[in-house]
Specification:
Layout (H helix, E strand, L loop, with lengths): L13 E5 L3 H12 L4 E4 L2 H10 L1 E4 L5 E4 L5 E3 L8 E6 L6 H11 L5 E4 L6 H8 L4 E6 L4 E5 L2 E4 L5 E4 L2 H12 L4 E4 L2 H12 L1 H8 L3 H5 L2 H20 L15 H5 L3 H7 L13 H7 L10 H10 L5 H20 L9 H9 L3
Parallel strand pairs: 1-2, 1-6, 2-5, 3-10, 6-7, 7-8, 11-12
Antiparallel strand pairs: 3-4, 8-11, 9-10
Helix pairs in contact: 3-4, 7-9, 7-12, 9-13, 9-14, 9-15, 13-14
The structure holds NADP nicotinamide-adenine-dinucleotide phosphate.
């Protein structure tokens, strides 16, 4: 008697990427390349490129994979009735409430939504408007940049972090097989704060106008980031908020590491510098495209935490103001705002903020 072979390329049901941008296209592409049924919900700006050229992802080692345009399932609205068992929420934080509302209108009660965004409050913000779905938090440690229409580059490495739960644990093998190794964490808030500390480099990168690697090789710019992280660490300690180390460098050493002379930094931070020379922060993309940034979810969180313990965080307040100024100038005039983008001036402005 012939063996009964049951094959199912997608034993997990379908995946929906909500927010087909840098992170969403990369994560969705990895799952689709592993044979899963993936649906992408996005804007015409990105979807048009995918329709024309397909979806290409490039890894830090330079290898690339392409999904043909014809194989992609692309949507401008959240589709219903597709048997979605996992949603990866990949919109910027300011779009979370509207994206969550749209998901709740189309998907069955209890559908799992992993909020793969930076910041601390996306799952909370989504639950507030769409309590019928199940939102859990995730953290993406690596950088992804859109380097052309339909082409996304993962510029660095790392393991995804997911809020610990029976359902997230069940997804770990599937994610690992798709080239997305992940771990679960009981204290995901500590992981999010650990990532937030590293992301305090994002506004510095955005104001510098440089790719990430080039920016990290500039001592004044590193010192600016160090000043922001140092202040945040002080606030976190006073608020007794735990942070998890997201890189092999313990968080408390980050300011010292960033202030090292460049030749020493290059040796000790070799892993941090293993970034594709084209990679840039997503805040740099936001400013370039005239979009609202996530500065409120980064420096703004440090300022809020400081206030909650009766303190101030003047350096993070100053950086919040600088980025808001550029955002508003863009909005009002359509032209790039003039911020103190010269490295030494930026450093002085942040280090002497009172
Ligand atoms: N890029 C990175 O390296 C990286 C790494 C780790 C974590 N993250 C975090 O991941 C999140 C996403 O970042 P990203 O860089 O991938 O952003 P992104 O490239 O801007 O992608 C988000 C996309 O979602 C679209 N969108 C927003 N609301 C939507 C809706 N209701 N329906 C359909 N599409 C919608 C956006 O369009 P509009 O622009 O028109 O709103 C945008 O195209 C952020 O929280 C970011 O901080 C990013």
């Amino acid at each position: 008697m012939a063996d009964l072979i049951l094959t199912d390329v997608s034993p997990i049901g379908s995946v929906l990427v909500m927010g087909a941008g840098s992170v969403g296209c990369y994560l969705g592409a990895r799952l689709a390349l592993a044979g899963h049924d993936v649906h992408f919900v996005g804007r015409p700006r990105v979807l048009d490129g995918l329709r024309e050229l397909g979806l290409t992802i490039t890894e830090p080692d330079g290898s690339s994979d392409t999904l043909d345009a014809g194989s992609l399932s692309l949507h401008e609205e959240v589709p219903s009735g597709l048997g979605i068992s996992l949603v990866l929420l990949c919109v910027k934080s300011s779009a979370t409430p509207s994206a969550a509302t749209a998901l709740a209108r189309a998907l069955p009660v209890g559908t799992l939504v992993l909020c793969m965004q930076n910041g601390l409050r996306n799952a909370e913000a989504a639950r507030a408007v769409a309590a019928r779905l199940r939102f859990l938090s995730g953290m993406v440690p690596f950088n992804v940049a859109e380097i052309g229409p339909g082409h996304f580059l993962r510029g660095s490495g790392g393991t995804l972090a997911l809020e610990d739960d029976e359902v997230t644990r069940a997804w770990l093998p599937t994610l690992a097989e798709a080239g997305l190794p992940a771990t679960t964490h009981k204290d995901i808030r500590a992981v999010q704060w650990g990532k937030l500390l590293l992301n305090l480099n994002n506004p510095v990168n955005a104001l510098s106008g440089l790719p990430l690697r080039e920016e990290l090789l500039q001592p004044d710019l590193r010192a600016t980031t160090a000043a922001l992280i140092e202040e945040a660490l002080c606030v976190l300690a006073n608020a007794r908020q735990r942070t998890a180390n997201v890189t092999p460098v313990p968080n408390r050493w980050l300011p010292r590491l960033m202030r090292l002379p460049t030749p020493v930094f290059k040796i000790l931070a070799a892993r941090m510098l293993r970034i594709d020379p084209r990679a840039r922060s997503s805040m740099a993309d936001d400013l370039a495209l005239g979009r609202r940034t996530e500065i409120g979810e980064l420096c703004g969180e440090v300022v809020r935490l400081a206030r909650s313990v009766g303190q101030r965080a003047p350096r993070n307040e100053k950086m919040l103001g600088l980025i808001r100024y550029v955002e508003l100038t863009r909005l009002a005039t359509g032209a790039p705002g003039r911020g103190p983008t010269a490295a030494a001036e930026l450093r002085r402005t942040i280090e002497t903020a009172t």
